[in-house]
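User: quick one, fold this
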Amino acid sequence: MTAGVGRVAIAGAGIGGLTLAIALRRLGIDAHVYERATELRPVGAGLSLMANAMLALRAIGLEESIAALGEAAQTSVGRRSDGAELSRFPIAEVAREVGSSAVLLHRADLHAALLDALGAEHVTLGRAAAGYRDEARAPAAVRFDDGSEVEAGLVVGADGLHSAIRRQLTGDANPPEYSGYTSWRGVTDTLCGAAPGQLSETWGRGCRFGIAPVGRGRVYWFAVANAPAGERDAGDPRPMLLERYGAWHAPIRALIEATAPERVVRTDIADRPVLTRWSRGRVALLGDAAHPMTPNLGQGGCQAIEDAVVLSGALAAHAKLPDALADYERIRVARANGIVRDARRFGALAAREGALFQAVRDALIRWTPASLMHDRFVELFRFDDPFAARRALIE
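Assistant:
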């Protein structure tokens, strides 16, 4: 007997929401996703699914199909703006050590594959969650901005950084906390000399540039720089990006020049204070609604996938909903919140602008023991499905 939730209503058709619905339905639990967008269009740029995410996807039978969408990550390289190598880390080797791989892919490809695995009939578009209802002696319900409701045994807020479900659950109506730096993201249709399988990041004074081939001859790149909150580009941002990064090592200039201006997206980087509780009553949070994080460790989507797999397993393993949600939080809260804090610290370190600090930072990166990096990434890349036996029994 599962947690007796009946139907699970999921607000948000992002990576976490779709993965949760897939995982639940494969365990025989009715789940439906409600999404504010009126159509699901290819959006976003690249992302990395590190070994922990791939192991979580294995638990619900999606590892191989998702791995085929992108390019296996082999190495991660850190550089100075002149191209001098500061660090080199064998991502593939460590991923194999924990039993999987790391994959670089386009977010739109991942989203389309998850939607296909779930089935479009289990997603309702044009329904923006405004909150929820959870009263005694009545089913819970997700409320929409048009005043309508859908009843469910469990409401899951997977509605992102600006989650309405989180706002009601926590009572915190504050905006996200701006990190002090903004980002530009783009995708080219040619490698421009980027090394296949190599994830690279170049550090300057308060600015960075990252490169990741994402399969099918495409490259995802991102640029990060300190900037006032809410600042926007007037027209084509590439001349400004070339002025800032164009003299950096190859193929940075070529990547910027090869990207159509409409494919460059600017986003201010923000997160929120960590929560120690992700649920109340018959309502739970997942992904960015529970633990929004800066993208500095490439773990945002990975942690949402872990959430989905663990929550689905907990709901299948426990007869009572409070026990399932308590187990979900016990397993997930400390790990995800630790990564939020680490990502925040990494971003603050990279944002420092002083020349002396940059020299010291580069030296520290260069001389960090390989064993220390290895142990940290093994910890980050591990994922053991705590409900594997229950999942196998049901499926």
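User: anything notable?
Assistant: The chain has one domain: 8-176+271-394.
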